[in-house]
Amino acid sequence: MEKKELLYEGKAKKVFATDDKEVLLVDYKDDATAFNGLKKGTIAGKGSINNRVTNYMMQLLEKEGVKTHFIKEISDRETLVKRVSIVPLEVIIRNISAGSFAKRYGVEEGIVFAEPTIEFSYKNDDLGDPLINSYHAIALKLATREEIEKIKAMAFKVNEVMKKFFASVGVDLVDFKLEFGKLSTGEIVLADEISPDTCRFWDSKTHEKLDKDRFRRDLGNVEDAYNEMMGRIFSK
Ligand code: UDP
Question: Which long-range contacts does 100-106 make (Cβ < 8 Å, 24+ apart)?
Fold first, then answer.
């Protein structure tokens, strides 16, 4: 598969065309941003870790019956994926209070919920990805009611599979962000990435943070945390 023109460059990834119009090539970078691009930096080795971790999770999810855009890992940092049109919603699942949830409701981090929660943000950098409810998403034609119901069911399934997997490597899955895409057939599939950039991971025993919060909050040992997560996942 030939790598052709750059179609899109985001904060953490580049997306290239290939000689097959239904196939794209994703190239993961070491660049890191936080707070809607206000904080910038690099995390050495992150691109390769996020590529490999994402692909591990996508394959695990496929085995459990979740359809994804994953096709094939072709190098340390590069992966072939199915072309989708991204549904412009960030889908956030939470098992434990943290981040914007704790801030919005004035509660401490670390409250374990009786049931997981779901929320959506409208993917729009100019607006700062505002929180949105499903009625507003439908009104704005970001997705249909049926697509939103499908996305919700898939997101909770992803949570069940990942919670169990991470528990087996001594990690609490606190929360995470998913993105979904539509194939040319109209089928909804899981897209984007699943990595320490997009999930909160806490060590089950010590509650040490093993994710991008180490970068966001200047906690130090950022690279160590990413390496630790990769080590635990690939020791399975
Ligand atoms: N998240 C993400 N991209 C975003 C916003 C959030 O991947 O643009 C992830 C984040 O890493 C965390 C979860 O979604 O695992 C919930 O994030 P939250 O709403 O608490 O926002 P934050 O505190 O990160 O601003």
Answer: 101/175
Q: What is the distance in A from the centroid of ligand 1 to the CA of 109? A: 14
- CB of 209 closer than 6 angstroms to any ligand 1 atom: no
Give the CATH number for residue 73: 3.30.200.20
Whether ligand 1 lies within 6 angstroms of the CB of 177 is answered as yes
How many distinct structural domains can be found in the chain?
A: 2
Please tell me whether residues 93 and 53 are part of one structural domain.
no
Tell me how far the alpha carbon of residue 177 lies from the centroid of ligand 1, in angstroms: 6
Predicted confidence (pLDDT) per residue in 222-234, tens digit: 999 999 999 999 9
Contact (CB, 8 A) for 74 and 1: yes
| Residue segments in the chain with a per-residue pLDDT below the cut of 50 | none
Q: Are residues 133 and 200 in the same domain?
A: yes
Tens digits of residue pLDDT in 67-118: 999 999 999 999 999 999 999 999 999 999 999 999 999 999 999 999 999 9
Question: Could you tell me how many helices (H) and strands (E) the chain has, helices first?
Answer: 6, 14
Quick one: pLDDT at residue 134? Answer: 98
Q: Which tokens is 74 given?
A: 């072709």
**Residue 188 sits in a domain of what CATH number?**
3.30.470.20
Domain span including residue 71: 3-82
